[in-house]
Every structure is written in C-alpha cells, then in structure tokens.
C-alpha cells in the first residue's frame, strides 16, 4: 500500500473555530450583562429542550485545558469571538476590566503556544440593552459597534493576528429579524433589510476604527455564510441577491445590486441607506479587505414556487418548519430537498458546492484572498465502550471538503487557510445541545472533553500539511 498526498501550499493556515455564547458559559459572572441570546434562550419555547448558554462548555473557566488541546492538535490559528456584553456591559460606555482580562489572557496563552489569535467581534450576542434601543434595524447600533471595535482594539490590537468584524450577518439580519428563529426573535421583513444594511455599515465603520488603533500588520476581515445556490435561474437569482450580493455588493462593488432593490421594493424604500454609506462599507485600496472569510456547510437547491407542497418556502437550509420566511423579496421561491447523505442538521453532504462557490468568488472578484472560516458537520456522536468517539462520517466530510479546497487552490483560487467548525461540541443556537459539531466531544454533565477520531485525523492533516490517503 502507498500513500497518496494532497498537499496544501506552504504557510497554509490550519485552525479551528468557536463562538463566545456557544462555549463560554459564565453568563452572569465578572460583570457580564445579558445578550439577546441570553434573553431568547431563556424564553420558553424558543430553544429545543429549554437549553441555554448559561454554562455551555464552561470555556470561561476551562480555557487553559482547551488551549492545551489546541496546542496538541498543532493548530496554527484559533478563531474565537469576543462577547460584546462581557467587555462592554449593556453595550458601553466603559470597558469591563474583568471581561477584557479574560480575552487578554486567552490571547497571550495562544501566542505562548504559537497559535495565531483570530478574533471575531460579533458572533450574534448583541447586548440586550442595544436591542431594546432598536437593535440592528437602528442605525445607532452600527455606530455603537464601531465604538466597541475601537475600544477593544486599543487593548488587544497589538497581539491579534486577524480581526473579523462580523460572523454571518445574513443569520443576524434574516433569522433574527425576519423569520424569528434566532435571537431576538422578531418577524419584520422590512426591519431585517434595515438590519442587513446597518450590519454592512457596522463592518465598514468598525474596520476603519480598528485600523486606527491596532497593529499595522493585523489582517482585517468579515465572515459571510455565502450560499451556493443551484436550480431554476430566476429562483437562484432571487436567493443569490438576498443571501450573497446584499453583502458582497456594497463590500466589493461599492453598491447594492439593482435587482435586490427591485425585488424588495414592496417591503422598503431603502431610505435607511444614507449618502456616503456605501462608500463607508466598501473595501478600498487605503482600507482593503485583507481576507474574506467563507463559511460553507451545504449547497442550496431552489425553484419558483409551484404550490404543490413538495418543498418549503419558510424553512430553508434546515431552519424551523412553519417559521416566517427569512427571504424578504423572495417568498415565491421554493427550497427543494436535495439528495442525501445528510448530516444530523438535515443538510445534504456535497463538497462540490464548496469548490464551485470558491471558483465563483475567484471569477467575480479576481485576486480576492479567501479563508474558510467554518466548515464541519453535526453527527450523533457518542463515547463508545472503548472510551473513544468513532466519527468516521465526520472524517469523510472533512476529507472531501478539504479536497474541494485543494482543487480550488489548484485552479488558481487564493485560499489561505481552513478552520474546522468546531473545536468543541457546544450550544447550537435554537437546537440547544442536540447537535454536535465538535472534533472534541463534551459530556455536558461533567464537562469532560474527549478527542474524537476526527480530531486525531485533523492533527495528522495539520502535521503533514496534506490529506494523506492509502491507495
């Protein structure tokens, strides 16, 4: 038997990712105040089994153990998020020293182990006080976010490798304010479009604020869960507009796409977009987007609604059946169930979608540096009698998707790294603790961590800088 190797470029960045509310716990400790997810998860009927992130995986107290796992895996980078209400209670104005100290210790611990800190400023945990003042549909939230970025950047900016402003603003805007299946649980299509714009504006303002206070060598990024949309051309166009180009347009082209404005004209007049906003959002030579983060899990298949009940307009991509639509301006589009196999989320496993998405970005925006900031799968993982977690399906998923990344790189796409989602099993938003994405298993009753077979496999991939297959 011989080894066949798919080798990645020298310097390719290997990492794993988490998010604050999903792992930290310590919800009421050391000056942290509630976020919208604290309020939402504590509201009966919002999260499966009434689960909350109050304890999660207790990373706030167990971070040294988790750092040891990162080092043992050989990670070159760790993508984590900063809890806005932990460092700026109620959204400000004063920094909370204990909260800042936690992240300062984490960053120093990463650097001591040769792991690059990749900090996400917003992974969905808006301070509840800012939601009560209007939330993301209100312009002031974008201004407050820029202030938050500048304040935390001033104290951590000499040590953080990459600053990511937002994680998946599509989910924040449309699952949070249109379909209501994420915090804060509002169902107002017009408000969701305003939220999307103010998230874009927040990115632009925060990036410029960060550049004024952080190390000049730091990288600046945003992470988007771009949808790879297949199916009937008109249906695909509509979904692409509100899934992808609503963010890529102002960010990389300097304006919102005309077809998106036309599709949503019956919902809003877009008067919340003020003169100068699109220029403030756009990446420019003096304030470039150093790398675009791409999160990918599964492709999307669509067609125009035909009324036969064979698909779902309201529950795209595995979101809750019967919920309001997260697709303003595209309610006449139907989401078609794709062939299996599926993950525990009900998402089809298809790595070709990742390759095609990366090629599309390269074609539309030549030379744009990309980073896979999340990719992974949920399966029904259990500790076996031998004490191990045998997650062969996750290994197959990761192998196939890494191979897709390698093919895209061979075709000329500038992909600079890959972050597995997730380092740890954790609180999976509205699904509570029912879905396990981690490469490290967590027993939630005892907080015991157990490396899954996929962690051992990923460690070997990192060590070799290659996917190794026996042939």
TrEMBL record:
Keywords: Carbohydrate metabolism, Cellulose degradation, Glycosidase, Hydrolase, Polysaccharide degradation. Its EC number is 3.2.1.21. The keyword Hydrolase applies. Residues 312-331 are annotated as: Disordered. It catalyses: Hydrolysis of terminal, non-reducing beta-D-glucosyl residues with release of beta-D-glucose. SUPFAM superfamilies: (Trans)glycosidases (SSF51445). GO terms for molecular function: beta-galactosidase activity. Gene3D superfamilies: Glycosidases (3.20.20.80). It is an enzyme of class 3 (hydrolase). Pfam families: Glyco_hydro_1 (PF00232). Belongs to the glycosyl hydrolase 1 family. PANTHER family: GLYCOSYL HYDROLASE, LP05116P. This is Beta-glucosidase. It comes from Actinomadura alba.
